[in-house]
Each structure stands twice: as C-alpha cells, then as structure tokens.
Amino acid sequence: MDILHVAFECAPIAKVGGLGDVLGALPKFLNRRGVNSAVFMPRFGDAHVDPASLTLVHEGRLRYRGRVLHYRLWQQAAHVLGFPVYLWEEPVHFERPGIYQDPATGRDFPDQGDRFFVFQQGLLTILKAQVLKPDLLHLHDHHAALIPVWLREDPAYQDWATLPLVLTVHNAEHQGRYDWSIWKEIGVPVARPEDLQHHGQLNALKAGMLWADAVTTVSPGYARELQERDDMAAGLREVFQRVAFKMRGILNGIDPEVWNPATDPLLFAPYTAETLEGKQQNKQALCRALGLDPTQPLVIFIGRLMREKGIDLLVRGLERFLPRHPDVSVVVLGTGLPEYHAALETLKQRLENFDAVHRLVLRFEFNNTLAHQLYAAADILLMPSRVEPCGLNQLYAMTYGTVPVVHAVGGLRDTVMPWNPHTQTGTGFRFESFTPKAMLQALQQALLTYRQPKLWQQLQRNGMQQDWSWDRSAQEYIALYQSLIPVTSK
Ligand code: ADP
C-alpha cells in the first residue's frame, strides 16, 4: 500500500506548528509498519533541505490563471527523514522565504490563495503525468482540501476518480475562504455548488470534508467538540455533523527520536525519570543564560501567539499572577500577531511597578533549540488554549518532566489527567472555565504541589512514563487506510 501525504509543512524541512511535527513523524512510523509513505510539499525558498540529498525526478509545465508555470519535482532520499519527501519547486509562488507569511512583515502573503491553489494543481499534474502512483492520498488541512473536488468532478481526472482520499483537519479555524469568483476561474462545475460554499464564499475545508472518503481530526475530544460546539467548529458545526459517519479523531503522537530527554542533543544535560537531577542541570544552565533565578519555579509558554492559543488570557492572567508570586519566573517563546507581541510588551512594562519585570522573559522568535531547552528546564508549562485540536506542547512537556497546566479543551482534555494527591495519579492540572481566575487557581494548585518535592517528583514521573509514541496512532491510520483501499492494491 502506497500512501502519499499532501501537506504544506513537514518538520524539519518547513514547520510552523504541530502540522509540521505530524508530517515529520507519522510517515516514518507508517513505513516501519510496512506501509510505504511519502510526503508531497512545496519547496519553499527557506526550506531546510540539503541540496545534495535531492534528486530531480520530473519537470514540466502547468497552466494557471492564464500563466504558464514551470515546475520541478525533487525527491529527498528516504534515509534523511525515514521516508521520501517530494518537494515541488515552482519559482513564481514558492521561491521566496516563508510558509504562510512573509517573514519581513509577519503578515499573510497577499497571493496566499494562489499559493494553495497552484500547489494542489501541481499535485494533480504530477498524478496525471504518472510520476507518483499512490494507492491513497492523505490530504492535510485546507491547503490540500480542494483536491478531492477536482479528482471527483473533473473528467480530466477520471482515471483517478476512485483513488481513496483521506482529509485530516488539524485545525478547523483555518478553512481557506475565498471569493466565489475564483472557483469559477480555476474550478470545475459541480451539481451542488452550495457544498463548496459557506456564507457565499468558496470554503476549501468544507469542500474537502464533503468530497473526501474519510475525515479525521487529531484527537477524539476535538472530533466531538467540532460536532457539538459552534465556537470550536468556527461556523462549520453542521458540516462536521454531516460528515460524522465518516469522521474519527486519532490522537497525534510524538517522535521519541526527536523528543526524548535521555538522548536530545539540544539539551545541556541528558536525564530520565530515574535521573531527574539532570533536569535540574538544564534549569540552572538555561536560567543562567536568561538571567533568571534557578532555585525558583519556572513557568513557560511556547506556541503561536494567536487568539486560539488564549494569548489574551495569558496576558490578563500573568498581569495578576506575577506581582502576587514574587518567586516565580515566566518565559514566553512565540511569534504571531503583532498586537499580541505588543500586549506582552506592555505587560512587561507594567510589571516594572511591581519589581516583576525581570521575572518575565519574552522571546518573539521561532527557536527550536530554545524550545527543547525550555521543555527540559521548566517546572510548569502553561497552555491556556481557547481551542486545542490535539496540542503537542503538553506531550513534549510531560515527556520532559514538565508539568502541564492546561485549559480543558480538545486534545488537552484527552491527554492531561488531573493530579490527585491522594492516589498520586494524574499528570497535570486542568481548568474548566476560560477565565484568569480559573487559570490562576490551577497554577496555584500546581505551585502548592511543587513545594512538596516528593509529590512533585511523582507527578513528573507519571508524565514521563506515558507513552505518546506515534506507534499506536499509526496503527489507527493503517486500519483506516485498509478500510478504504480495494483489496487488490493492498
Ligand atoms: P499548533 O500546531 O496549533 O501550533 P501544537 O502544540 O500542536 O500547536 O504544536 C506546536 C509545535 O510548534 C511544537 O512543536 C512547539 O514546540 C512548536 N513551536 C511553536 N512555537 C514555537 C517557537 N516560537 N519556537 C519554537 N518552537 C515552537
């Protein structure tokens, strides 16, 4: 069985968030279970690839909106990441640095829609040229969600009309909404145009869900929320209900070859659940580098500075929390909306009055090394997400003995089990209501436990002993693929 994943990110080649982590790991674990898996993605101008590992497999031309575009398809050798990656190079839309946003402005590329459309057309052209012959396409997010419509509706692709199609929704907030006129220009006529539309606009995610053979999302909890809660489904709840018969939640995993405190080359010192003093060395080294006191509790936030990550709650909560807890330090690592950068800067300035300014470190950058070092050094990871499809940060945190304090939504509810001091079970702290008060109560509970070292170590070990490896989830995907692929091609 040959599976081709179609996605905009794949770590470490190009990563903005969890989507990149998933594509960097899942195909490797599928291959290990005997399911040939490869990734098809754009070759961005700043992609982390070694040109020496690439082979040119095909080149050709594509007509798009009245223009002829030249493309090349490169294959990164399978030994580099554990699976082959096909990088689609097309200079007009992809030679520049940046995945979704222009790094110079921090804003979405003005031709973002064209980038997604042309990428999908690129894949279709490659299929038609018979360069790649998958038994199933696994499409990720709205960036690839129009492919099912073209394959099923355009007579030009009738040879692929029965190719099984799986769409994974990594985040329902991002839907790919465009003026309807674009579909008239680049699309194909369909019997029920309203299935492609939401509020009169072309909606790529909705279309993908309706046309794909199966829909998955990245945790069972989020799958339920999408069908039950308007605020989670970002307007598409009815569509999620409509596809419920072919939809399931499969929890993301983590790649222990990248995320393991015993072997992580980015750490100051390795450690395990049995040698937690090594974690202390990481804390000392990192606190020294950041000018913080290593003998005091260290709370971190890592993630995209976006509304869905609850940055407004983070700011409001920290404003109350830091002055009241003169011994706690907080590090925020993230990039995102300029208004959130500004809100955090303003918070820091306000803290001057409380002598707390030096205990809040802000790093507005994407820094993978620092992220690894923070997971290793910190005591508590704060994750006040408003919406969280799966969340990987809390899984990394637990693996590194850092205790998560999370808003109980989506994958966070599925993966962080509340600490019970009586039975000494559980892996973290959850808060139910999305308010500063609830968040601070959970943080205070965590700090109280932190001050009881024996209990805290037990809590850390509980988290470190969980198995979040991709193996289990890969098996669930394989069962899904098998249910869709005709027996003759398995
Ligand atoms: P999402 O996919 O919604 O962004 P996840 O929790 O699933 O959230 O995944 C986030 C991933 O991105 C994690 O690997 C996290 O460590 C990483 N990450 C996010 N922001 C940064 C940053 N500024 N620097 C380094 N890594 C980051």
TrEMBL record:
Enzyme Commission code(s) on record: 2.4.1.21
Domain Glycosyl transferase family: 288-458
GO molecular function, one term: alpha-1,4-glucan glucosyltransferase (UDP-glucose donor) activity
Keyword Transferase: yes
Binding site for ADP-alpha-D-glucose: K15
Pathway in which this enzyme or protein is active: Glycan biosynthesis; glycogen biosynthesis
A Pfam family recorded for this sequence: Glyco_transf_5
Matching HAMAP family: Glycogen_synth
Protein name stated in the entry: Glycogen synthase
Species for this entry: Rhodothermus marinus (Rhodothermus obamensis)
Gene: glgA
